[in-house]
Design brief:
The protein is built from five helices and eight strands; from the N terminus they run H-H-H-E-E-H-H-E-E-E-E-E-E. By secondary structure, the chain is of the alpha+beta class. Helices cover 52% and strands 12% of the residues. Strands 3-8-4-5-6-7 form a six-stranded antiparallel β-sheet. The longest helix is centred in the middle third of the chain and has 91 residues.
Length: 282
């Protein structure tokens, strides 16, 4: 065997050397490029400026926008004007309603005042007529009583005119003159009475001041029998000192008293409502 049999062919090593040289050359070029770039320092990037072009508003579009704004403003003004008109109308309606109510109230007040004035005038006229009638009746009764005192014929003891004094005649005349007047609890005249108010007023014409209430009047004086009454005596119903009603005996078995709200002041027979007892003050 040749001593060169184990030696590789010389051609293959050359090919490999060529490839290695090529590779080394490329790598060297790359390294050179990096080295140059590193020596030059970092690159400064230029700022990028981008311009955006906005659409151009045409004159027609501007006019439409202005017109729309003007229309909106006009609508707002119209609404405000309508609101003011509505408020004014509502206020006027309220004022008119108030004025009408006031006019109605004044008319009713005037009507009531006229009715009250008419009623007052009628009442005053009636009162004047009643007073005139009472005055005439008192005059006639006084004259009759005076004639009886001078010696007229006598009647039963309980109503004997010979026992009627001037004071008794005055009391009886006053009591009879009030017949027909109204009964009012607590009334003391001149046209409305309660029972004790009438008796007190009748005795006042004779200058005698009686207590105000029937309980006290039933014990003011001397107790007398119902069979021995004289005109002017005070009749009472109930117990003496706790009487609930009083009247004036006017002779002839009759009395005058302010009875109740239904009958008013009346002249009645003692048989109509028999009293419990009587007192004599004169």
């Amino acid at each position: 065997m040749s001593h060169t049999a184990h030696i590789p062919s010389h051609r293959k090593p050359r090919q490999r050397a060529s490839k290695s040289a090529l590779r080394a050359g490329v790598a060297g070029g790359v390294l050179s490029t990096i080295a140059v770039a590193g020596a030059a320092g970092p690159a400064q990037a230029d700022p990028v400026t981008q311009t955006i072009e906005m659409p151009t508003i045409t004159s027609g579009f501007s006019t439409a926008v202005a017109a729309s704004a003007q229309a909106t403003q006009q609508v707002a003004l119209d609404l405000e004007t309508q609101a003011d008109e509505d408020a004014a109308a509502e206020k006027a309606a309220k004022t008119a309603k108030k004025a009408h109510a006031e006019a109605v109230r004044k008319a009713e007040a005037k009507k009531k005042a006229e009715a009250a004035a008419k009623a007052k005038a009628e009442a005053e006229a009636k009162e004047r007529a009643e007073r005139a009638s009472r005055t005439s009746e008192r005059t006639t009764l006084s004259a009759s009583s005076g004639s009886s005192d001078s010696g007229s014929s006598a009647s039963a003891p309980s109503s004997s005119s010979s026992n009627v004094s001037g004071s008794a005649a005055s009391i009886v005349a006053f009591a009879k003159a009030q017949v027909g007047d109204a009964y009012v609890s607590g009334g003391t005249g001149p046209n409305a009475w309660d029972c004790s108010g009438l008796v007190q007023a009748a005795y006042r014409t004779a200058g005698i001041d009686l207590p105000r209430v029937s309980q006290s009047q039933s014990t003011f004086g001397t107790q007398v029998s119902l069979d021995n009454l004289q005109p002017g005596d005070i009749l009472y119903w109930g117990s003496a000192g706790s009487a609930y009603h009083v009247a004036i005996y006017v002779g002839g078995g009759q009395f005058v008293g302010a009875q109740n709200s239904s009958t008013g002041t009346v002249q009645r027979s003692m048989d109509y409502d028999r009293p419990t007892g009587a007192v004599r003050v004169l």
